[in-house]
Amino acid sequence: MKISKFIESSFKRFIPSPFSLAIILSLLILFVATFFTGSGNLHHGWEVIKIWQNGMWNPAMLVFMVQMMLILVLGHILVLSKPVSKLTTLLTNRINNNTQAVVMVAVSTMLVAFFNWGLGLIFGAIMARKTAEAAQKRNFKINYPLIGAAGYVGLMVWHGGMSGSAPLKVAENGHLASLFPGNDTILNKLPQNIATTSTIFSLSNLLVFGALLIFVPLLLYFVAKNTKSKVPAFAEGKTTATKNTTFSGAEKIDHSPVFKTIFGILLLMAFLASYHDFLLAGRLTPNMLNFLMLGLCVLFHQSFASFTKALKQAIVGAGAILIQFPLYFGIMAVMKETGLVSQISSFMVSNTNAAGLPIASFFSAGLVNIFVPSGGGQWAVQGPIILESALKLEVPLNKMVMALAYGDQITNMLQPFWALPLLAITKLKARDILPYTLLLLVVGSVIYIGGLLLW
């Protein structure tokens, strides 16, 4: 397929590494914020740099960074355990060629990500990696970068799913009012909340998700049939079983299956005791996910020694997050504190009518997501602008919430920020998967825009 070959060669030539991209975006935002906000003089530029520096080391954001690192590391440790290896083997045993692989990985990843974005992120990476291992073991050809892209599609459906930041926030009583303190004109028009039955679980959103479940795998199937594939030269993930060796003294604790089983069960019991209310409500936070995975990691590995060996292998992939996340935290702080996000959003929604407002909001959310790849952070900044515009033009608020959610998630296919865990686990590079995720961005955008027009 000439088009896919052209896109692939172009990306490999012109797209830098995720780290270089983060630096380029940082410099761009510092320049724009200095000369297009405030006074634009040297003093203002110094203030922008201080905002950027403070944002990089924002304590709340650093906590979030550690949560993401743990999601990656614990997910990788799970990959190296025997039970997960057996489970993924069962799933991949039915895969015998490239087209089956992309469809299986894409559909399963989207379904998991609709339930929870964190699980979808790790599940897609695991499925892509295990598919490559199965192809190598059973000697069938695949397009591994395309499989990696299929494992990333969960990030283009998550915000419209059960863990979507904006739909969940607006469903909280009093949250809408908190966005407009003291503005009685707007407060009198706002409902107490916007229920998830009119956003996540609305017929319109479920139909959009259903269309994605059909057309995304179809696109990947078509690309898989028209691109080259090969048996991957991939280093299989090995479980960290210990040899039958006699241990003495404290070594017995490190290698005892009894101690690790007791502690693993204790962790899972503590998880259920602490979070059963959240589970019943269908909510799964990053802390909950990490707590659950820690318990499963300890329980599934043969011993503490096996767990720590897997940890040493998994921790290597977390380096990219450790360095790149603070750079994006700085970008987010500059865009928020200097009013850049407000300017972008206001510009794109101010000169439109009721019919075009959801589409304009979709594009503005997609643009902002390239610089602020955080659904919750983006809603906090863009939410008030979008809701106020909706009230003025009498556009349904639930539709506007989903317009932002759709725009935020679709440009994840262009922004490799959230691909870092997948890249670490699969050992692929961003430029390997981006040619294919760009095609997914185009198809997904058509579906989302069509869904908003028909809402």
Number of helices: 23
Structural class: mainly alpha
Q: Give the C-alpha Rg.
A: 23 Å
**Approximately how much beta-strand content do the residues carry?**
under 5%
Distance between the termini: 35 Å
The overall average pLDDT, rounded, is 85
Shape: globular
Question: H/E series, N to C?
Answer: HHHHHHHHHHHHHHHHHHHHHHH
Count of individual beta strands: 0
Low-confidence stretches: none
Biggest beta sheet attributes: none
Helicity, in percent?
Answer: over 70%
State the assembly state of the protein chains.
single chain
Could you outline the blueprint of secondary structure elements for this entry?
Blueprint: H1 2-14, H2 18-36, H3 42-56, H4 59-79, H5 82-92, H6 98-115, H7 117-138, H8 144-150, H9 165-170, H10 175-178, H11 184-187, H12 203-225, H13 251-255, H14 257-280, H15 286-300, H16 304-314, H17 319-337, H18 340-350, H19 357-371, H20 375-393, H21 397-410, H22 420-426, H23 430-454
Helix pairs in contact: 1-23, 2-3, 2-17, 3-17, 4-7, 4-15, 4-16, 4-17, 4-22, 5-7, 6-7, 6-8, 6-12, 7-8, 7-22, 8-23, 12-23, 14-15, 18-19, 18-20, 19-20, 19-21, 20-21, 21-23
